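Title: Prediction job returns without error message
Component: structure pipeline
Severity: low
Priority: P3
Assignee: unassigned

Description:
Job completed but the reporter wants confirmation the result is attached to the right record. Sequence as submitted:
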Amino acid sequence: MPDPVDALAVSDLPLEDLVACHECDLLMRKPTLARGETAQCPRCGYELYARRHNVVERSLALVLAALLLYVPANFLPIMELNLLGQSSQDTVWSGVVGLFDTGMEGVAAVVFLCSMGIPLLKLLCQLAVLLSIRWNIGRSYGLLLYRIYHHLRDWGMLEVYLMGVLVAIVKLADMASINVGLGLACFISLLMVQVLLEVVMSPHQIWEALSGEDAHAGD
């Protein structure tokens, strides 16, 4: 665990040797970690950062998997609804179009951005950042894109959309016959891959690699 720093000693240490806990704001000396180790706050136990193996390669694999799942997750039927002899197949995209056609353009725009636009933009930013590290090109652009990605993180709400779909299925189950489509499996898989990507793509190592401090982020 890192050592807390006395307030009087802060001015004697360079900023790159200090780390602050995101949860309790405890200021500590930054420890040197070996591969596979993690640093935790001694006061609240929050994971400060980790040094994981093959961060770039593993993250690239997950990003590519997420991009492959993106199209079927958004354009294949999530569920088929049979009511009074009529059937309809609903996708994420058809939901956006349906809201737009009923005059709710603002809601349609928000749903599109949070469920399709921003998640895709996040994945493309992550892909560009990882490729800039992997091929050692455009590190300055990689830094800019990674900052953009962090600003977008709170706006990609796939889990909220998934909860809405599950609630709709439960409420409509007694009124109509519902068949779950392949799109729902792809959508859940996309969400799981993105969650795993958040864990694997260690921000501390990515920032260091982009700034040239860690030349072995892919090891």
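Comment from assignee: result matches the submitted record. Strands lie at 18-20, 27-29, 38-40, 47-50, 79-83, 86-90, 177-180.
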